[in-house]
UniProtKB/TrEMBL annotation:
Signal peptide: none annotated. ATP binds at residues 354-361. Residues 336-540 form the FtsK domain. Keywords: ATP-binding, Nucleotide-binding. PROSITE patterns: FTSK. It holds the Pfam family FtsK_SpoIIIE. It comes from the Bacteria. GO terms for molecular function: ATP binding; DNA binding. This is FtsK/SpoIIIE family protein.
Length: 853
């Protein structure tokens, strides 16, 4: 190419470039004209955003609004005041690029947050996690309930430590779970309303947050209406909702949620909050390490706060309280602090339920020690009955190891018989009647007035505790009917006379038994205490006790209906045995030195003659003696004896194969030996069966030691001796013919011996000749005495293991009820027309091995 051509081309390029440049300049000028003038308000916007950020921080300090990715680890937790409005951050508004501020909504103490999207949208799930974390981290004693009907609980998996520590329950994921959460939320609102009515300060009322990540499929219109109603009552009821997935469905619009901020989820920068005219960005999910840290320190704090020990139940000083208007004691604590329950006009009786191992005994011990520490014996008397195997109340009674007792305790039954229970209840009815007539005489209608009227009269409030009370109703027999009658009377009238019942049962049937009694005594028990596994003491619609664990109880003073529940923690008082022993000793030292220890009936215990309170005072005296046979199953554990007066029929037959029969005879003759001066009574001892010969020898030795000259009669001499005896020659005192194993007499005494025996039975007592005999078989005994018609000759029968029916048939009383059992006997005295359940005396030093019962 020539240089000219090259020059032309360069010139063309230059012209083209020039025209591009001109064009560009033109375009820039044009463009510049279209651009707005530089923004003079930019600094003001930045300043406003900074002000809004500050305001948000002030409204929602610390965890409530700090960005969670950068929140310092030492940010104070749960420092927010428990009353007032709590604002929680939900996102960031960015009205113009580069200008942003946090968005907080008034939630706790104010209202609710409603989100149209649900947790299936990860942005919503993140927001909910953030709101949850911010709320629990900032607000003390906030109860949380979680529902996730759209992602099977996944929205809240990070809250697992709270669930594990039972700070909150597992996330509800279905319709039933949602309804349960609503039940609890409604109960919460009622509780708060009651608290307000009682004048409890707002800060002391519980606060609850329910977060719904999405409703379960097919949530009914009724359930949605319940949610809307809760929202309506929420702010006053200190219940707040974060409700995600709340939107119209195909068939009907979602009910309006009052007091709520509505958040509409749009595209990434287009979320909208009611009344905020700018779009916002939702808060992301908190970083997992922040969740771990916050939830971890919450559970530690919770553990520390809810731990409670026996000292928390006790007053500072002992015996300072007056029971004039009722009794009251701390039984545990809840979110509001110490929980005190009362036995008074409003809650005169308590009903306690708990599965076996649910902590019933521990709870009762806490109550009893708490009462005993507050009220002295002039203010409080305790009657304690336990029908199960165990040693629940033995620590209130003196023992070889520890001679102390709780001075307010009047009677204790451990492994009690139903008869003992009835005896105690009957005695309490007697006291009720006495108080009623004293009040009538004094012209007063209240126990408090009677106490003022008769200051010298001892009128403590009486608390009768019956553990496993359903045993009283077992059998549906006479005893059961009597027990129901006693309980009904005490439950109905006790309130006015200062007599209170605390009934505890582990079984539903126990409670049902009470429920089905006449006119339902149940209604007399407004105070219900449900331990784990004891839903049955609450109303059948009340599920509050379903998920509680050992050491917790639902206390309900509204007869068990929903809305009156308080969830409490109570301590394991048995874990600190030393402290309890210290308390017991302190109370014991405070007692009146003349006061008597409680009567203790231990169902399993054997009774021994030498330990009988009457034994030491037995002394020779003229006149007939009494055969001491055992201890009564009654409130005084009285000595059971029969008088051997010179009156026809005063003979005693002990019946049954139980080897205790020989021991009873032993006790009878040893006791009689102490009631007659040497030489002033004749003792004939007849061992007819091998196993009884040792016992017979022991009895003879004891009589010899008392100065008597007992005669041991061999089987072969029996007939002659009987023939001689029925001459009824005058003697220096009574004659006691004691036969061990009379059922073996048939082959040895022949017809003459038997005739003489029957004559002795019929005519002997009038002459001071008495039979004390043990027959192992009732049938043989009947034959030996000469058949049924001769039964009048033996007025006193002590039946061991003889079936009640046979016994009834023999004595001609078809209504006789007796269930033979180990270590028990029934004394029938036909002259007094009485029967008495008895623990027969055993020889303490007998050989351990004895034939099976
Ligand atoms: N508040 C508590 N905290 C921790 N452990 C407890 C608490 N209460 C009871 N326990 C423990 O639970 C166990 C059972 O308690 P308890 O004997 O009171 O149950 P119960 O309901 O009376 O059972 P049962 O009817 O079978 O006698 C005990 O080992 C006790 O230490």
């Amino acid at each position: 190419m020539s240089w000219r051509t090259e020059l032309d081309r360069a010139y063309q390029d230059f012209r083209r470039a020039q025209s591009h440049l001109d064009r560009a300049g033109e375009l820039i000028d044009r463009q510049r004209a279209a651009l707005p003038a530089p923004d003079a308000t930019a600094p003001a916007q930045a300043e406003l955003a900074a002000l809004l950020t500050q305001a948000a921080r002030r409204l929602a300090p610390g965890y409530l609004s700090e960005p969670l990715e950068t929140v310092p680890a030492d940010t104070p937790m749960r420092g927010h005041p428990a009353s007032g409005t709590v604002h929680v951050r939900v996102g960031t508004a960015e009205p113009v690029p580069g200008v942003e501020f946090p968005v907080v909504v008034p939630l706790l103490g104010a209202g609710h947050l409603v989100v149209d999207g649900d947790a299936a949208d990860p942005r919503v799930a993140g927001l909910l996690r953030s709101v949850l974390l911010r709320s629990v981290a900032a607000v003390p004693r906030l109860s949380i309930r979680l529902v996730d009907g759209v992602t099977l609980g996944q929205a809240f998996t990070s809250a697992a430590p709270l669930v594990a520590e039972r700070i909150t329950e597992p996330t509800a994921t279905d319709g039933a779970g949602l309804e349960r959460v609503l039940d609890l939320a409604e109960a919460h609102v009622h509780e708060v309303q009651r608290g307000r009515n009682d004048g409890v300060a707002a800060a002391d009322l519980p606060l609850s947050l329910v977060i719904v990540a999405g409703l379960p499929p097919q949530t009914s219109r009724a359930v949605r209406a319940r949610i809307a109603a809760l929202a309506h009552a929420g702010p006053l009821g200190r219940l707040h909702l974060v409700l995600a997935g709340w939107r119209d469905d195909r068939h009907e619009p979602a009910p309006a949620i009052e007091h709520a901020a509505y958040l509409t989820v749009g595209d990434d920068h287009g979320h909208r909050l009611t009344r905020l005219p700018v779009p916002l960005r939702l808060d992301p999910a908190p970083p997992p390490q922040v969740e771990k840290r916050v939830f971890g320190s919450l559970t530690t704090a919770y553990r520390r706060e809810t731990s409670i020990d026996v000292a928390d139940l006790m007053p500072e000083d002992h015996w300072r309280e007056s029971s004039v208007t009722g009794l009251s004691t701390v039984v545990g604590r809840d979110a509001r602090g110490a929980v005190e329950l009362r036995l008074d006009d409003a809650t005169p009786h308590w009903l306690i339920g708990g599965r076996t191992g649910g902590g019933k005994t521990v709870f009762l011990l806490g109550v009893l020690y708490g009462l005993a520490a507050r009220y002295g014996p002039r203010e409080l008397a305790l009657y304690l009955l336990d029908f199960k195997e165990g040693v629940s109340f033995t620590e209130f009674t003196p023992s070889d190891r520890d001679p102390s007792w709780i001075p307010q305790v009047r009677a204790v039954g451990v492994e009690s018989d139903r008869e003992y229970g009835n005896a105690v209840l009957l005695a309490l009815r007697g006291e009720l009647t006495r108080r009623a007539s004293a009040m009538k005489r004094a012209g007063v209608t209240k126990l408090a007035d009677l106490r003022r009227h008769s200051p010298d009269r001892s009128l403590p409030r009486i608390v009768a505790v019956v553990d496993e009370f359903h045993v009283l109703f077992a059998g549906n027999d006479r005893l059961a009917r009597e027990a129901a009658g006693h309980l009904e009377e005490l439950a109905r009238k006790g309130r006015s006379y200062g007599i209170h019942l605390i009934l505890a049962s582990q079984t539903i049937s126990g409670v049902e038994a009470l429920y089905t009694k006449r006119d339902s005594i149940f209604g007399q028990f407004p105070m219900r205490i449900a331990l784990p596994g004891a839903r049955h003491v609450l109303d059948h619609l009340n599920t509050a006790a379903e998920t509680i664990r050992l050491g917790q109880a639902v206390v309900n003073d509204g007869g068990g209906v929903t809305g009156f529940d308080r969830l409490i923690q109570f301590p394991d008082v048995t874990a600190d045995g030393e402290r309890l022993a210290g308390l017991r000793h302190a109370l014991w030292r405070l007692r009146d030195p003349d006061s008597a220890p409680p009567n203790v009936f231990a169902g399993y215990a054997e009774q021994h003659l030498v330990e009988d309170p009457r034994f030491p005072s037995l002394a020779p005296a003229p006149g007939p003696g009494r055969a001491l046979l055992g201890r009564g199953v009654d409130t005084d554990i009285s000595t059971v004896s029969v008088a051997l007066d010179p009156v026809p029929g005063r003979n005693l037959a002990v019946l049954g194969t139980d080897p205790a029969g020989a021991d009873v005879l032993h006790a009878a003759v040893v006791g009689l030996g102490r009631q007659h001066a040497p030489g002033r009574a004749v003792f004939l001892l007849v061992p007819l069966i091998g196993p009884a010969s040792d016992v017979c020898r022991d009895a003879a030795d004891a009589l010899v030691a008392a100065g008597h000259k007992p005669e041991v009669v061999n089987a072969s001499d029996l007939a002659d001796r009987l023939t001689d005896l029925v001459e009824f020659r005058p003697q220096p005192g009574p004659v006691y013919l004691t036969v061990f194993g009379g059922d073996a007499a048939g082959p040895v005494w022949g017809t003459a011996g038997q005739k003489a025996f029957q004559r002795l039975l019929r005519h002997g007592p009038a002459h001071g000749y008495h039979l004390l005999g043990w027959w192992r078989g009732l049938r043989r005994f009947i034959d030996d005495i000469g058949g049924g018609p001769a039964r009048e000759d033996v007025a006193c029968l002590l039946a061991l293991n003889v079936p009640g029916g046979e016994l009834g048939a023999f004595i001609g009383n078809a209504a006789l009820e007796y269930q033979p059992r180990q270590n028990r006997a029934l004394l029938i005295d036909r002259h007094d027309n009485t029967t008495k359940l008895t623990v027969p005396f055993r020889r303490p030093d007998r050989a351990d091995e004895e034939p099976a019962w």
